[in-house]
Design brief:
Elements: H1 2-13, E1 17-18, E2 21-22, H2 23-39, E3 47-48, H3 61-64, H4 81-84, E4 92-93
Antiparallel strand pairs: 1-2, 3-4
Length: 99
């Protein structure tokens, strides 16, 4: 809940935007994605993109591999870059649990 309050505060004070998303939120998302990937112990296998759906413009996760700064900007009802794409902190992980 603390993170949502932080995002709301950042959004209320934000001025510049990128694709309609305040720069401060984009920066926070990047930090959170980095933090989670550096501190995750959930899986030890390689990440694979979930290619079962595409974003609002028809692009799948392979587009986000080279456009990670756009993660979340083009999500649709059945596609979330943060859940489906490795470049955005999601994807499918194989291997054994490291816990």
């Amino acid at each position: 809940m603390k993170y949502f309050a932080t995002l709301a505060l950042i959004a209320s004070q934000a001025s510049a935007t990128h694709e309609g998303i305040p720069i401060e939120i984009q920066n926070f998302k990047g930090w959170m994605r980095s933090y989670l990937s550096d501190n995750s112990t959930a899986a030890t296998g390689a990440c694979e993109n979930n290619l079962s759906a595409s974003d609002a413009y028809g692009d799948d996760c392979s587009w986000y591999d080279t456009n990670a700064d756009s993660c979340g900007a083009y999500d649709s009802d059945d596609f979330s870059a943060a859940l489906f794409c490795c470049a955005c902190g999601g994807g499918i992980f194989g291997g054994e649990c490291a816990d």
